[in-house]
Model the fold of this input.
Amino acid sequence: MNRYIEQLIEDLQAARKFAPKQRSRNEMNEEEIWDELVEIDKIIDEEPDRPLQNIFGIDPASFPPIDKLTTEQAQLLSAKILELWAAFNIEASYPKNFPLERFYPMLVEKFRKPFMYFPMGITGIEFCHYEPEECPFGDEYCMCKEWSVEMMNKIEDEVKNLDPDELPF
Done:
């Protein structure tokens, strides 16, 4: 199994060479920025969502089932998947203290799911819908409750600071 995992890691690293080259906003003139915004609109309007396997060229069936891996192997593969995603400017949203070996099956499953990918900027992947009862990270690692409280506090603060004379209704 170790040799297979080494080969899979080589495939993940090889896929990184297909990552789009990005320039920072500081390196672009105003026209290039507008062109990029038009391209983003075009992707949203015209491009179908594609599974990550199509973007990276790696079949999720290539990944061993979690029950065939040691904790260390699952952690290593998770880290390499996240590195590949980062090369494509795809950012996974998950609790930073969540064990990578438990994250592995979630990451592999995302290879199968339709995804709207933008080759410019950063694209986020959510694993949670911010409903504590359905949190895939479980009670111990759930970010939902904290996020819900923060959002409610922000909304309450904004409502308190509204000027009734400036409301459109």
User: Anything to note?
Assistant: The chain has two domains: 2-127, 128-169. The chain is about 50% helix and 5% strand. The longest strand covers residues 90-93. Residues 2-127 form one domain.
